[in-house]
Specification:
The protein is an alpha/beta fold and 417 residues long. It is 30% helix and 25% strand. It contains 13 helices and 19 strands. A hairpin with a 2-residue loop joins β8 and β9. α5 packs parallel to α6. The structure holds nicotinamide-adenine-dinucleotide.
Length: 417
């Protein structure tokens, strides 16, 4: 394999546009060469094609990914798939059937049974596909996980993820699948937990995964309450508790509701220290003996770092991609069990939700009364919103043996049984 890897990108707009910009930059540095791209709306991307100098770079453009693969498969070292979630499996299937590995955007799928089929399909490719969870390649993250594994902080006792990224109502109308449970009868399950902030959920499973650096925790049991503030089919607010096979418990509170600045903190509680990791690589270690340690991460361009790391793997310089399809299984299982446990998605009580117009953006947000306290009480003490009157029923405790109920639960949630 030559130094310059030859790439195809399925999709041209949305996050595929960011892949194009990154690949163009890496092409200038001689690391990658974009051979081809496609989008059913290719004709609408005239200005992008010009700005990215497709003609001068000799990039072939197609309307359909199958025609693109028929014409160009022999010239491709890998194909990036940054397209809607419910199209990932069929695109991954078509690419790997030609022996080509993929850079598949996260989440690979949110259906555990489909993930199993994708894992099997991936074995036909020359090398493993990589799933685009941005943050596993961060050097400061990997160094901290090595310290966790060495036992320096003592045994891991638990962890929490608090992540609130307020999104305006229009966020859910930007495409045909945002906030949807099903599209064309296919499982999408788009949400903050499975998609928008799935990076951080995957990170929590990475921190607590043993025995090696590239290990993700196995899920033993899950209890969850799913809510919505926005008028969407799926959930925009998740409270989830997961018991891991290792014996410790993780709590997650994630939401796209609310207003004001976004926050996201990954916390790992160990016998001798509490570790807090904020995206951007700011690490705070509070030792039980009173010492504290702060580490600032280096500037980090997730897409660029991940394309470069995948390239190093494809050239045989490193043994594995940062996240494989198999490594994504704990996240997908956790997400599916959270839906099964909650059984339904309850509206956040209307008297707690108010419209807030962001004057600068001229966008409509939904503020939730006392939200920060509800999140904090859940993460620190396990107080479920249902105890505060958000809904009447609690989520049931479910285990991986409940996964066969997943399809029926999602269809019932979507009112399509
Ligand atoms: N890693 C990250 O930080 C990050 C950030 C945002 C989005 N994403 C992921 O990227 C993926 C795409 O998300 P998005 O919001 O950009 O979606 P999107 O709906 O905007 O779609 C992206 C592009 O795919 C194209 N597309 C749709 N159907 C196609 C088809 N049949 N063939 C070829 N192209 C097709 C669309 O026209 C669009 O140009 C998702 O998996 C999402 O989770 C990742």
């Amino acid at each position: 394999m030559s130094h310059t890897l030859r790439v195809g990108i399925i999709g041209m707009g949305g996050f595929a546009g960011s892949h194009h910009t990154t690949v163009a930059r890496l092409e200038e540095r001689g690391a990658l060469k974009l051979v081809c791209t496609c989008d059913p709306r290719a004709a609408e991307f005239g200005s992008e094609r010009e700005a990215l100098r497709f003609a001068a770079r000799g990039v072939r453009v197609f309307n359909d990914y199958r025609s693109m693969l028929d014409a160009c498969a022999g010239e491709l070292d890998y194909v990036a798939i940054p397209t809607p979630i419910h199209l990932h499996a069929e695109m991954h299937e078509a690419v790997t059937a030609r022996g080509i590995p993929t850079y598949l955007e996260k989440p690979p799928t949110l259906d555990h049974a489909e993930l199993d089929r994708m894992i099997a399909a991936d074995t036909r490719a020359r090398k493993s596909s990589m799933v685009g969870f941005n943050f596993i390649v961060e050097r400061s993250r990997q160094a901290l996980k090595e310290r966790l594994l060495s036992g320096e902080f003592g045994a891991i006792r638990g962890g929490t993820l608090g992540a609130v990224w307020p999104r305006p109502s229009e966020y859910f109308t930007r495409n045909g699948w945002s906030g949807r449970l099903l599209v064309d009868g296919r499982i999408v399950l788009d949400s903050c937990f499975g998609n928008t902030m799935a990076h951080f959920v995957h990170n929590m499973l990475f921190w607590t995964g043993t025995p090696g650096l590239y290990s993700w925790a196995e899920i033993a049991a899950v209890r969850a309450e799913l809510y919505r503030a926005h008028g969407i089919e799926g959930a925009d607010t998740f409270f989830v508790e997961a018991d891991l096979v290792s014996g410790c418990t993780l709590r997650f509170a994630l939401s796209l509701a609310g207003s004001g600045p976004g926050t996201s903190t990954e916390t790992v509680i160990c016998d001798r220290a509490v570790l807090k990791y904020a995206v951007g690589g700011q690490i705070e270690i509070s030792w039980k003996d009173g010492r504290s340690e702060r580490i600032s991460g280096e500037p980090f361009d997730g897409l660029e770092e991940n394309h470069l790391a995948f390239g190093r793997y494809l050239r045989g310089e490193i043994p594995r991609p940062a996240t494989t399809l198999e490594d994504s299984r704990p996240l997908v299982v956790l997400n599916d069990l959270a839906h099964i446990s909650s059984g339904s998605i309850a509206p956040i009580p209307a008297h707690l939700v108010s419209h807030e117009l962001d004057a600068k953006e001229q966008k409509d947000y939904l503020a939730v009364s006392d939200f920060a306290r509800v999140v904090d009480q859940f993460l620190s003490r396990g107080v479920w919103p249902s105890y505060l009157g958000w809904r009447r029923d609690n989520g049931e405790v479910v285990t991986p043996s409940d996964l066969p109920r997943f399809g029926a639960v999602v269809r019932a949630m979507a009112g399509r049984l």
